[in-house]
Amino acid sequence: MVLVMPVDGKGPGALRCWECDRVDPMQLPSTTAWLVDELRRWMIAIREDIAMAFFKRELSPVERFESALKDKQAARHKLADRLSIAETVLGEKRVAAERLAVAGASNAQLDRAEANMCAVEDRAKTLRAALVEFDEQIVSTQCALADAKAQHDRELVADEIEAMAAAIEQAAPGFNAGAAALVGNANIVFRAPLEPEQPPPPEIDQQLIYTLNPLLWREGSEVRRVPAFAVVGLPKMLLPAALRHQHVEYLNARRVQTLMHVHDGGGFNSDPDQDDPQLVDLDALAAEEKESAQADVA
Fold it and tell me: How does 216-228 read in b/e, with b if 16+ C-beta sit within 10 Å?
């Protein structure tokens, strides 16, 4: 026999026999508290699993396409930002290469400038291609989303019609509904009459050159204005004066190759305005040289 104190330490002790009067551990207060706590945790876990199963329901086609469209639009926005940065850098490289070419830099300097510009240009082309692909995917997703919404609307209308038909059938047995036919309108396209072709102007002996400044000259009754950094046909009678004043350059010149690369082959700029202060009148320039030559002879 031994004196056994209560488990919670409260109350008097009692004499017990270890063999015949052993304490049942399942009746201890600590064991009961542990079981209650574990049961509470188990019930909470079950509720969380039920809630997660409810919120993880399968998305409808409209919800799936809306989510996919949102993701693609966000990715396209990031790609567009990268392309904007690349195009800004490309513009800076073009300006630097143009300045070197106009200043008559060495071939090595022009080669380095072109290499730097080509690297940025290739990266910009890759980003543009990726952006076009994203645009196509977005258009496709938008079409699929529109189809899914239309199908959803048709299903709703079908359910409403079915419910209405059931109500009519219950209210008035034997009532038959008719269907209305749709008639389309045809659009007639009228073709505008062709304008008579104008006779071609008389041919002028010209030579292809590359412009370094905006130029102006006259060909009969027509006034020609061309931008800087463009390949144009210049009347040969104006070519010497334009070359002497460095307003044009031959196409095989080294700096012309760099400038054509910078300005996309000679079609980068638009025609200058009539009041452009940088516009050079080649007719007036040639006339001034002619008068100066005659004055020197006299």
Answer: bbeeeeeeeebbb
Q: Is the pTM of this model over 0.70?
A: no
Structural domain contains residue 34: yes
* Spatial CB neighbours of 226, under 8 Å, sequence gap ≥ 6: 211, 214, 215, 216, 232, 271, 272
The answer to whether residue 229 sits within a structural domain is: yes
CB 93 within 8 A of CB 117: yes
Total number of domains in the chain: 3
Domain that holds residue 229: 206-297
Gap between the Cα atoms of 220 and 92, Å rounded: 41
Q: Which residues does residue 234 pair with via DSSP β-bridges, in sequence order? A: 207
Identify whether residues 17 and 100 lie together within a single domain.
no
**Closest of 279, 273, 277 to residue 247, by C-alpha:** 279
* Amino acid letter for position 206: Q
Q: For the segment 203-259, what is each residue's pLDDT rounded down to a tens digit?
A: 778 889 999 999 999 988 889 999 988 889 999 999 999 999 999 999 888 888 888
